[in-house]
Amino acid sequence: MLTTIVDPVYPDAFGALVAPLPAEIAALTARLVTLVGAHPGLSGKVMPGWQSVNFRHGVAGHVCAVFPHRDRVALYFEHGRLLDNSHGLLEGGGLKKGRYLRLAPDDDIPVDMIGILLSEAIALSA
Q1: Among the listed residues 28, 62, 32, the one whose alpha carbon sits nearest the alpha carbon of residue 47
Q2: CATH number for the domain harbouring residue 95
Q3: Cross-strand partners of 42
């Protein structure tokens, strides 16, 4: 069983979410959940039915979610269409309101840009 820094926050639910996935996807998911969960004002909850970890802000409401897949992990922004994408990181132009950042196990996590996108997403709804 994978033990990660997210275990104290999401004890059994996180392990159950990533258990059927390859180890490198589970590890990437844990890193991304830890990064997003450290952003000021956000709290996460494992949503087994959605197979994701969803993040809310006290004022802005639902901001984003981390969705692990067999070959990648997606960070979905609820109102991503309204976010600045001049950096070209966000995909999902065909979606009505959301956009997502897709990461594979060998990708570098764009930590600074994710922080900027989270702050912008919170500011849109706060």
Answers
A1: 62
A2: 3.90.1150.200
A3: 57
